[in-house]
Amino acid sequence: MHSILVFMHQLSSLYRKYRPRIWDEVSGQERVVQVLRNSIKRVQVSHAYLFCGPRGTGKTTSARIFASALNCLSVTDGNPCLECSNCKSFLQGNYPDFIELDAASNRKIDDFREIRDQVQYPPLAGKDKYKVFVIDEAHMLTPQAANAFLKTLEEPPPYVIFILATTEPEKLLSTIVSRCIRLDFDLLNPEQAEKRLREVMDLESLAVDDVVIEKLVNRGAGGMRDTLTLLERAVHFCGVHVSQKEYYSMLGLAAAEEIDRLLEHLIRENRSELIRAYKVFMRSGKDPRELLLQILERVQHYIYFQLQVPANYREIPSFVGQYEATRWMRIYKHLLQVIDEMGSSLFPELHGEIGLITPPSTDGVNSGPDPQIKRSIKKIEQELESLKKQNIAIKDDSASIATDSTSLRPTVQLRDESLSHYPEAERNWQQILKEVKNKNPMLKAFIDPVQVRQEGEKLCLYFAPTHEFHFNKIQEERHQSQLLELIQHRYDSNIIVEFVLGEAPGSSEESTSRPQAINKSSHTAENNNSSEDFVSDELKQKLMKDPGLNQLVEDFGAVIKNVD
Length: 564
What we know:
Elements: H1 2-11, H2 14-17, H3 30-42, E1 48-52, H4 59-70, H5 85-92, E2 98-102, H6 109-118, E3 131-136, H7 143-154, E4 160-166, H8 174-177, E5 181-184, H9 190-204, E6 207-208, H10 210-220, H11 224-238, E7 241-242, H12 244-251, H13 256-267, H14 271-283, H15 288-306, H16 325-342, H17 348-357, H18 371-389, E8 411-413, H19 423-439, H20 441-447, E9 451-455, E10 458-463, H21 468-474, H22 477-490, E11 496-501, H23 509-513, H24 524-528, H25 530-533, H26 537-543, H27 547-556, E12 559-562
Parallel strand pairs: 1-4, 1-5, 2-3, 3-4, 6-7, 10-11
Antiparallel strand pairs: 8-12, 9-10
């Protein structure tokens, strides 16, 4: 029993035991280390620094190394020597000129008045040394304390350095931020975290399964302190050998093979077995949200495997390859929604069960033609076949109608009106249409029905009453500003642009019922044969029964030109 207690004592607080003491031991913060190290080597030190970043990324540790190196009696390549009296005092935590303040608990104005008084006294280490104040969780300061601190921060004595550490820099006063050199700390990537974790395991003579290491790294989420804390917890529970089974038991997680069996029931839509498997998990004390997160993680592995994304795959079951990646993507998206909704559910266990047996939606995933589109295609094919039997001449391409939703509808041409009196203006408008088509096809659709008239320095854009939808859309700032920019560039910066809902002067009833070519010279043949280009009224009436096509005509003022 005594030996066990000694062992546990040695393992306590791994993140403190293996806290970096020199820059060479800091992982994943190369940019920050380079800046601070160069400042020490060149003796170019600022009076104030702001360390920003997620928790557990080394902000306070870096502040301590920086302060130790500044006051070291024998600095080597920007690193503290760890051997001199000042360094030893730092390591023991009793260096007098290093003051660390937690703003979460010392956040009142009186605390910072005390700092103001301490600033007046030079460092005890003597000349050319620094008095370093580290204010952790600086964003927790009260407004009164922050303002009291601001004056001291603005003009401190040359021997004083302030280091503010925070996870939420946006909550700090802008006047404080502007007086500091800001350094941003990053989360460690999985490779960096795993490397450091294995170094600690080797030093502690720990044996940890690879699966468990992967889980520790994932749950640590890039924070080394959290990762080492999780390792410490696992060792306290499992001993020096941390197996996957024991680790999963500690966290209340299901084994991978159990998750695979549940997912097999899910993908095969075997709902009775799915419910049975889910209830077994619940009876064993599993947390429903934690279980779904574990399932979600496993589905992610399936998707990566299907897409051949480089990853460390372990025992992917054979049934995974029987289903396309898009199917697994739909499940993934559905599970995300279920997990999100569980947070506000009064019955999370029941919510998870219903979520698992509910078929996932196909929205947002390219899984083939929509059923509604398929029905529309079938209906159009039947109508065309009926017309053929009536000896109506139609080009027989119906058998090659694609299943892609972009090629399911008859060819349409949206309305355009030409400029009538200004050849140069007409060419400009043509160029605008080309530029809009390339930059913003949606905007092109909104201005297609426009009738344009230039009256001196005023350009009028007329929208027929039937195109009120287009008129309203072009009034939106994001569309209007882009169009005006193009017009002013192409015409004249001083030109006045007016948007009008109504028929253009001189437009005839004929011109509002049929498309009119923009470039008359290039479409003469088309205008001459307009009677052949347009679908007969009988066919048009039949085609307009399709809801999708009808919506296109109503929204964009489209005209059915031919059936191809």
